[in-house]
């Protein structure tokens, strides 16, 4: 096979591989929202059972009581190996009263998304800062010392 044909083949392969990394990838996560089904849930008419039959299991429930159900839907998009960027997020919150009837149905968008950035490579803690060597040799002299609860027979007499 002549050299220019091999070179052209390699160039075509590299271009094909490079162009696939630039193609946008769209993803959907969570609940698939059907507007008609969500609109059919009415405050004062529906209860927990009818909401479960209409919308299905919620994505999240409230932590402290069963007074709120959340249905979360998220559309993301990214190029190649980059981090996905949220294009659209819809959260439907169904609130219940004490009797289990629907009190309100709220729709929220991506304005409520919280961005949490980790701080450095370590977790900040309260207390003193210790080095590797103080962790390694910090117990020397404290084992069996009075008041540390270590060593000896029950009662601390050692006999």
From TrEMBL:
InterPro entries: BamE, BamE-like, BamE_dom. GO terms for molecular function: protein-macromolecule adaptor activity. Residues 1-23 form the signal peptide. Residues 30-104 form the Outer membrane protein assembly factor BamE domain. Keywords: Cell outer membrane, Membrane, Signal. GO terms for biological process: Gram-negative-bacterium-type cell outer membrane assembly; protein insertion into membrane. GO terms for cellular component: Bam protein complex. PANTHER family: OUTER MEMBRANE PROTEIN ASSEMBLY FACTOR BAME. This is Outer membrane protein assembly factor BamE.
